[in-house]
Each structure stands twice: as C-alpha cells, then as structure tokens.
Amino acid sequence: MLETLNELAQLRDTRHGLKLLYWFASECVSFENNGMLSQCDPAEGDFGFHHFENRYDQYRNKLLPDINFPYFVVGNLNSPGAEELPDYVSEDNYTDDHDSNTDRIIVSVDEEWFVRVYVTQHHDRSNYDPNATYRISKGLLMIIRRMSLNEFLVEMGYYTYIQYVPPMPAINYSPQTTNTVSPDFTAVSLLSGEPAHNESPEIHTNDTIIQLNEDTTTNKPSPNLPKKKGFWERFCTVL
Fold it and tell me: Which PANTHER family does the protein's record reference (predicted)?
C-alpha cells in the first residue's frame, strides 16, 4: 500500500523531484469542481509525457494499483517533447550525480481530468523504486501551487543541500610596464615682455614653446674656416 502525502512536512522527508513536482502543480493542473483538470495533454506527448506500462517486476509486483484509467509518466529529459519543460526543471539533472534524471511523475487520466498523481524514482535503467514512490494528494498540490518556486524550495530545505563553491581568485590581466626611452621635451614659457621670433612687437603672449634637445649639432659654419671670396673680389685680384 503506497503512502499518500498530504502535507509539506511529509514531502520534505522524501526530497526528490521537487522542481518537477512544482512545475506540475503550478502549470500542468488546475482545480475545478472538486477535481484536478489537466492543463496539458499527456496522451499527445506534451512535455515528454508517454504511456506508462504498470507491468510486473522481477518479484511479480506492480508499482501502482490496477485501475480503469491509463497511466502516463513524465520527467525523462531524453523523451521527445521534454525540451518544453522549463529550465529550472532540467538544470539540476545534467550533472555527474548518480541520481540525475531519475525523478518521475506518473498520472492516471480520465479524458481531461487527472485521477491520481504519483512521484517516483528510478533505481536502475528499467525499474522504479517502490520505496521512493508516493501518491500526492490534491490538497498538497493546491498548497504547492500557492507558493513561489523559491518559497517552495526554501520550505523543503533544498538549498541546504547545495555545496558552497568559493569564488575564483581575482587575476590581474593588466600588462606589465617596461622602461622606455622618451625624447627630452622642455617646456619654455615666454615672458610677456619678450616677443618670439617673427612675432610682431605689438603682440605679447604667454604661449609655451616645446624645445626638443637633440644630440646632433647644428650645421653652422666654423669661424676658423677661410671665407670664400665673392665674384668681384676674385675679378679685381686677377686685374
């Protein structure tokens, strides 16, 4: 006989398929006329739903009771249509954890109404764990539906099981400075009373001239070199 969960405290003890169950309660079912009205179509494969065969296991036991309505299962992220599930459902399942992508919800459907809702979990590739299978009451689904995702996960103690990862140390990517040789620029300010070359005497400014000191010498004629004679001097000497 499977246990029926009616309160959040009971669900907290199971601690599996929380995000998948929140999605189902908040988006896949509504409550009308004292029943659970389907907001998706499991028979058409919405969100990865597919038919669940309630077959005998190796011990000749069935996971769920036999009823007159078909069962459908959802939660396998590899099923066609599962990409329609919101990201918060799938983000924790693409990990190296041994129990990733093992949570399932199984529903029985009478046309457009959900008759029963179960949560379960795979314990190997082909079999479900009967000790991790529970029926979820309509009242518990209504409680979950009234909560935000964050409120629900906090209430379930979900975040206490997330390992803290310290931030990476900051790395300085600034390029290292190198010693470079730059020209020697000297700023020379002209006094207001000293006009610059080629400047009209009537105009006096405080402009700044940048003087470049270079090692090369200017090409001025040496005073010791003989002075070249002009044309008329050479002509008169000949005469």
Answer: PTHR38706:SF2, SI:CH211-198C19.1-RELATED
Rounded to whole angstroms, the Cα distance separating 117 from 25 reads: 10
Per the structure block, which two tokens stand in for 78? 């590899």
Q: Is 106 helix (H, G, I), strand (E, B) or coil?
A: strand
Instruction: Give yes or no for a contact between 39 and 30, defined as CB atoms under 8 angstroms apart.
Output: yes
* Residue 66 pLDDT greater than 80, yes or no: yes
- Through-space distance between the first and last CA atoms of the chain, rounded to whole angstroms: 146
**229 vs 166: CA distance, rounded Å:** 90
pLDDT at 168 over 60: no
Residue pair 84/48 in contact (Cβ under 8 Å)? The answer is yes
Using one digit for the tens of pLDDT, what is the confidence trace for 116-136? 999 999 988 888 999 999 999
Strands 50-52 and 71-74: antiparallel
- 24 to 40, 59, 157, 199: CA distances (angstroms): 10, 31, 19, 89
